[in-house]
């Protein structure tokens, strides 16, 4: 049976295989495309700035869809939302592969991001339902592996595909894997559903608030302060309207009941800070390596793999530690290590030995791995099992909001810092990691 006792081991394995495959595909969908952007730009004879929207559209769509999808989880059930999300993701992959123009490709990526939101929210909620309470941290450790490994191998897989085929095959590779999932999901427990309808007004305000704010922060980096300020103010205004509308809604998308639990709220803020720190480093380090240290793109790719690889190695260890020690302690130690690693990257010499770079990135990866599983476990188990869909929605929202905020800040840092933009980003990442230490540590007193 599902619920607090979870599933039997045999049924749980089949459902977890389905969940991990879907989450792995959604993570790969985000990581595999970056390296192909120059090829896509040449294919459509488009500018680099326009082509970047192939990546941004996916991330933006996934973010704004998370809260609406979380509400659908409770009204339609985990099985339906997960299966629909994966189906949308797979069919949108076909749309990406056969897109005749760049706008069509960006549109298909928007749809693909919406499918990824369904997979992310329902997948995380499934873990809470199918595992016994004392084993749930092991399930989230497997989720961390499913997300980290495709993130680590994404550039390598993309390079291997592009060596023998054209960029559309980066999307076609999703199709056969996605089609194998439906038989496995049948082993999942019956859904418990709540009668509720999709809040269209709230969904629109959520998209406007997020989109305007993030675009505004990014616009600051271009030097057009008047437009950027207007976008940020408009985003904050829409955010206020969204919160007000949700407070009056009989069944809000924002889980106010969960936010009344201090452990949950602090875990959300810890997640936002940590993922902002991660993306600030991920985006800025290639510029540091290729511009300041004059490394090739291939060398940069191999060096950067160290971080997600060590995160994947650390994730199961963190899962076991979570059973014995408070999540607040493990997360705080991990984020402190991340902050130290980022600070050490700032003080790299101009021509360091490769090992000097690798061990610093390994420290960042270990720190991030120690944070991820305990924080996910704390957030997902803070509330009742019946609110797993809402908790999963906020879990994914915190991750994507952190990534999007960090990405927008990269534009600002490079606009303000010029040649030192990458260093500014690493310092900002360190500051976010330390803020995460503070919010995580505060959980000890709640």
TrEMBL record:
A Pfam family assignment: MFS_1
SUPFAM superfamilies linked to this entry: MFS general substrate transporter
Membrane-crossing residue ranges in chain numbering: 14-37, 49-69, 81-100, 106-127, 139-163, 169-188, 200-221, 227-243, 263-289, 301-318, 330-351, 421-442
Annotated keywords: Cell membrane, Membrane, Transmembrane, Transmembrane helix, Transport
Cell membrane keyword on record: yes
Domain Major facilitator superfamily (MFS) profile intervals: 15-446
The organism's place on the tree of life at top rank: Bacteria
CDD domains: MFS_MMR_MDR_like (cd17321)
InterPro entries (alphabetical): MFS, MFS_dom, MFS_trans_sf
Membrane topology category: Multi-pass membrane protein
Protein name as annotated: DHA2 family multidrug resistance protein-like MFS transporter
The species this protein was found in: Bradyrhizobium japonicum
Subcellular localization, as worded in the UniProt entry: Cell membrane
